Structures are given as structure tokens and as C-alpha cells.
Amino acid sequence: MPGAAALERTNFRGRTVTLAAGPALALAASTAAALGAASVPVAAAALTAGLGSGAVGLYDDVVGARPEQKSAAPGSSPIHADPKGFGGHLSALREGRVTSGLVKIGGVGAAALAASALLAAAQRRDERGSRPGGTSRGRGGAVAEVLSGPAADRRGDQRRGDQRRGPGGLSRGRAGAVVDVLLGAGVIAGTANLVNLLDLRPGRALKAGGALGLALAGTRSGGIVAGPVGAAAALLPADLGEEVMLGDAGANALGALLGVALVADAGRARRAALLAVLAGLTAASEKVSFTKVIESTPVLRELDALGRSRPGAQVSEAARSGAAPSGPSGSGASESGASGSDAPASGVSRAGASRSGVPGAGAAPSGAECP
After folding, report:
1. Is 110 exposed, middle or buried (0-12, 13-18, 19+ CB in 10 A)?
2. 280-331 per-position pLDDT tens digit
3. What does the longest C-alpha to C-alpha distance in the chain come to?
4. CA angle, 115 then 120 then 124, to 5°
5. How is 318-369 classified by DSSP, letter by letter?
6. 348 with 19: CB under 8 angstroms?
7. Which H or E run includes 176?
């Protein structure tokens, strides 16, 4: 775990905040989600997604703030300095630079893939248990298994496998399972990225994550989301008060755990629909500023600002103390310090740092979200 000084950042108001809330959320929410899971494979999926995404997010938070991560390679275009988005990190890789953001992208994707495979294993176990003669059907299932015998069960499985086998020799059931795992991985990684995209204002990512978690509370994934929702509620006051930041560690972990909950309660068609929505939002963030959309929509603007200190209040407080307010105050400047753009520079969200998403793009146009 990095030292306290390595986790300190100065936000857009000039206040010193800590990123320690990010790894704390990742650990607490992942553990609670695993304890609330319905089975061991689902619990393992929650731990893999939450802790894995949080770990690589923390790596990006710490290593990404180093000077060498922000400078372009000798002889390269300055536009490739401090690369942003998936395309930017690939451009840096072509120049021989492996950025911390690229490591994070790969790490979140790998954690999502492993978690999705664990969820698929849990689903297969549930399906076997629900078949006549399955071990999960109580005493009747046990009696049926004794009467049919293991040999008969193997012959039945072989016949079903032969019927599902396609012309190319690949089992249709196996091909479908691969598709399910890939779709699930896309949803988990995409949700982690979306929450990270929203972490551009104090409290925004926690509010959105908590709302999604509450919407899933009544589903079969309710036990999984209890941990993320509880952790989000516990950290919200400090985040709104600009005492802490989630950073990539917290935002990616929160999103990944919510993604596990979405995938655990979704079939193939729903996973495909969710992935399409997430991909659409990610693509839109390359061209449209979510912050500008929120601020131009009265209801969203009020919900987004709820509980957050108003810029005018800081001006009044500074005036009473006889000191000039630090940083832009109520000027409409973005939190990365660049007027008219939400694209953070480098470091973490809202301190000018969350640079990479899964997926993303290269140099972001003005006004685009680009963590």
C-alpha cells in the first residue's frame, strides 16, 4: 500500500484530498459482496472483479502521476504526452511506451473475464442442479440418481452433447458458453469504465453507483450489491465534502462489482443489450461531455449538486476570512482546470488525473469525458 503522501492530490479548488478512500472501498465492498453472494463461485467472481479492478486502478493512480508517464517519447509528437483513452495508450505503445493506463485497461479486462467465467461456472452448476436427477433437487433428485445410475447419466449427457454438436465439431452449448462469458466480461469491464467516467465531480460516481445498486437490490443479485451500496453510502459525505476521492481504484472497483451483479442476474440477450448500452455511452463520452449534459438538464443538475458545497459558499467563506479563494471558484471551469472541458489531465479523477477507460480513445476533443 502506498504511503499517505503518495495518495494526496490537490483538487480543482486547491484543496488537498486523499485517494485512500479508493482502495478502502475496493476492499470493503468486495469483501461484503462476496459474503452476500449466493454461492462460492459467485463470491469468487465478486472478489476477482472488485479486488482485481481496484488493484490495477490503484497502480494507475500512483504510477500514472509520475513525470515519466506524462512526457512524450523523444522525437514523438507532444500530443502523445500524457495519453488519454484506449487509442492514446495504444499510440504510446507503438512508440515503445507502456503506460500505467494501458496496464489498467488490461488488468480490468482480465479481471472481468475471470469473473465472468466464474459466473458461468455458477450458472452451469445451477442448471445441472435444476435438471431431474440433479443433486440440488433434494431427496427426489438423489432417488432418481440412484435409480438411473451413473452410467445412464453419462449416456444421456453424451447423447445431448452429440445433438448439440455443430457441423464444425464445436459443441453449440460450448460455443454459447464462450459467448456468454465474453458478453459478461464486456458488461463488467464496461460498467467499471462508466463509473470511472462519472467520477469527475464530487459524489457523482457514488450517487450513480448507489442508485444502480438500489435498483438491483430486489433481484437475485441483491446480496452482491449490498456491499457496494453500503460502501458508497459510507463514503458519500466525505466525497461530497471534498475530503477524499475515489480515484481509479475506487471507481473501477465499484463499477466492476455492480457489473458482476448485472451479469449474475442476466441471460444472454440481456447481457448483449447491456453491453450495447455501455458501448454507446462510452462512445458518446468521446464526443459529448456528460458534465455539460447534466448541467444543462435541471433535474440532473440538482441531483448532481445535492449535498455538494456550492462555489458561492467558498467565496463567502474566503471573503469573511480575508483570503482569496484558491483555484477557480464558480467560474464554470472544468475540474481538470481546462475551461470548457471535462477531460482530466493526469493523476486521478477530479484532480486532473483519471486518464484511461475501458475502452477509450486518443486525444479527446474539447468537452469530451476522458478518464
Report:
1. middle
2. 998 888 788 888 999 999 999 999 998 887 655 444 444 444 444 444 333 3
3. 88
4. 150
5. HHHHT-PPSS--SS---TTS-TT-----SSSTTTT-----SS--SSPPTT--
6. yes
7. helix 172-198
